[in-house]
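re the bet — no i am not wrong, look at it urself. input seq straight from the record:
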Amino acid sequence: MVERPHMSLSAQDLSVLLMNAIDRDALQALQYELNHRKTKLAKKLLIKVNEKLGVAPEAEVDNSKWEYEYVQLKRRHELLRATFNIEGELLARWGMTSAIPKEFEETIFDAWSKALTAGDDEFGRTIEQLTSDLEKLKSERRGMNPNSITNLNLGESEDE
């Protein structure tokens, strides 16, 4: 659910914001809030906001709610995606993040290799997936730091 940052403001407060609004984002935030309101003043303010945004008076503006939500969700999604990479995705599958100390990571991977049985677990993880993910991690980290992971499942040492 998208937040309504102006929900607690009165219509008069929104009117002041409208007078001071200079950028499209501020106007869209006002438009979004005013689309949730039913008073006569809110409807008049919405008409003014729409005029500033260049929305035709006869046009249905209910889609502004979706546009505002889309912009907000897209920003959040981009921030979230920026935190992910191949290493992060692989570690997350096994309940870790890249912030975990390497000693803990090795211990956790060792525990997973002992805990997984012939089938898959409730999340579809298998010993084959673990082996594959460890290979991918090793490959991914090779350019960064060749000693950053010890492959616990493949019987290889870092010297090989």
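see?? Helices lie at 11-20, 24-34, 40-53, 63-82, 86-93, 102-115, 127-142. told u. also The chain has two domains: 11-82, 86-142. so pay up
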